[in-house]
Amino acid sequence: LLDFGFEGIEGGILLALKLFRATHDSSYFRFAVQLYTWTRNVLQAPSGLYYDNIQVATGRISRAMYAYNTGTMLESAVMFYELTRQPGYLVEARREADTSAGYFCGGDHFRDGYWFTAVLVRAYQHLLEVDKDPKYLNAVRRCTDNALLHRKNDLGLMSATVPVDLVNQAGMLEILARLACLEEPAG
């Protein structure tokens, strides 16, 4: 089955925005707007989170929600805000951040795998550059601290299963690196 999910859309929006920023070619910006608008209209749940994909052949939308879907759309909203200074994009980014922090980082544990969560952390870090409210990254810190205390195996890896999922190990490393970059220097 052919699915049209975030593998194409999410990367497409951010890539188009980055190409626009680098080249000032407005066709990239228009393409990003088209993808962003379609995704919001078709794949955004009433909560503000995003469904995973739509099957092209049937038009059936998968109701699964993953951190990377919302994270990518949140980061797209932040980039649109940076490029246009239209406040609606920042309002949308904050709404998505509020909802996603409660859903994916609620109860001091990550709801999703570390790899997918790392995409959401990137978005929170980007939002922090324009919003200055650390509450979303504080939720990530609480979940990360909890995972480090309770989710490591005897080898110090972030997995209770064998074989160890190396993709999620990389995701946790990215989360840790991003949080470390935000720490104040000692002294």
What does this protein structure show overall?
There is one protein chain. This protein is mainly alpha-helical and 187 residues long. Helix content is 66%, strand content 7%. The chain is built from 7 helices and 3 strands, in the order βααββααααα. The protein has helices at residues 6-23, 26-43, 67-84, 87-104, 114-131, 135-150, 166-182; strands at 3-5, 51-55, 61-65. Strands 1-2-3 form a 3-stranded antiparallel beta sheet. Helix 4 (87-104) packs antiparallel against helix 5 (114-131) and helix 5 (114-131) runs parallel beside helix 7. It is globular, with a radius of gyration of 17 Å. The model is unreliable at 1-6 (pLDDT under 50).
